[in-house]
Structure formats: C-alpha cells, structure tokens
Amino acid sequence: MNNYEIIIFWSKDDNCFIAEVPELSGCMADGKTQMEALQNAQTIINDWIETAKQLGRNIPEPKGKLMFA
Description:
This protein has one helix spanning 34-55; strands at residues 7-11, 16-20, 28-31. By secondary structure, the chain is an alpha+beta fold. It has one domain (7-55). A 3-stranded antiparallel sheet has the order 1-2-3, covered by helices on one side. A hairpin with a 7-residue loop joins strand 2 and strand 3 (28-31). The longest helix is centred in the middle third of the chain and has 22 residues, at 34-55. The two termini are 23 Å apart.
C-alpha cells in the first residue's frame, strides 16, 4: 500500500465515487462504492508510479495530510 493521500468524493455527474490522488498529477480512479474507488485508486497509484519510472520522471514522496486544502 502506498502512503499517498487519497480524497474520495461523490460525483453526481459521473454517478460514482471518485478517488483523487492530489500529489500525483492526473491520478484518479472511480468506483460504485467508496471502497471500490479506494481499491481502484491503489491500483492506479501503482500504475502511475510504474509509468513514471519507465519515462524517467520524478516520483513525488508522499507528504501525508493534504497541505493545500
């Protein structure tokens, strides 16, 4: 499990829960339940990190509690 902060919210437009990872640009997932969105977010975080490694991009260290809310 990664230590990146994940924000989960209901999207009326998408009719599902959205799990956003603010520290990883563009990293988000969805799900029919909060738990499904969280599980999908963990998968997508791993994919995001793997892709960044392959492209030689910087991978931010998890900061924990959201600093810019």
